[in-house]
Design a protein that fits this description.
Number of strands: 26
Order of helices and strands: EEEEEEEHEEEEEEEEEEEEEEEEEEEH
Mean pLDDT: 88
Structural class: mainly beta
Number of domains: 2
Largest sheet: 14 strands, mixed
Low-confidence stretches: 75-79, 281-285, 287-294
Oligomer: single chain
Number of helices: 2
Helix content: under 10%
Strand content: over 45%
Length: 294
Amino acid sequence: MTRHELREPERLGFEGIHRLKVVSTAGKVDVVGAGEDGAALVDVTRVKGEEPVVIEAADGELTVRHGELKPSVLGRLMRGRRIEADISIQVPPDCLVDVTVVSGPLVVSNLHERTRVQGVSGEITLAQLHGPTDVKTVSGPITAESVTDDLSAHTISGAITVIALGAGNTIRAGTTSGAITVDLEDGSDAPRLDLNVVSGAVIVRAPEDANLDVDMSTMSGRTVTTFDGLADHALFGNRPIPFTKPRQLSGRLGTGAGRLRARAVSGDMTLLRRPVDPGLSQTVADDGSDGEDL
């Protein structure tokens, strides 16, 4: 096993890495998939406080740790005696990644295998993740861009924004207080969406040629859509329910091969139609028409 304790900025390289585990109490953390053949790079650009950044490599697993996730450490954070570190990590794209950050912004990008992310307070940004991804935080927004595989995203207080492109992938998102926004990119094929909010709005943008079975409902809020052919009606028929006006938006778009389920206790439900990018359609047409038989 190789072990390093860094108390000042330093860059270290490793070989044969296929698993990464990160634990950071405070500071910026950036994990990116790049390179190949198990090569990894850890770049610590700032260390604040008495505790060092501990880096260990053993049996193909790289562990980067700054502080311990114990009540005593969280107490020191709240009393102002902070420990912080800014850490950038480069690993192979096919690396299995597990990251926990207590306080601070986190960016994870360009990974092709399973990724697990946990936070307490701070913004979490995910980009170009092509493997199953599970992200949870207590307070702070979650943004996931170019998601092509299954995604599970949950926060207690904060907004969730997802830009998805995939074939048959499942997106589960939930927040207690905050909005959920999902953009389905052109070419998304039969995605399965399960969205749940206690207090907040749900907004879904889908291409006009989307294939979705739609069921969106709110106990207190509006239901709005720019798609034709969907039913917008009172939930539970005309039966009065005290203090609420439940509404439901339902129906089938295209073949209905995909699924959109959304629930809110208090908040609006919106499903918007977006024109398909004509450039994408033209590219497909060009691919099929250019060239001559020889």
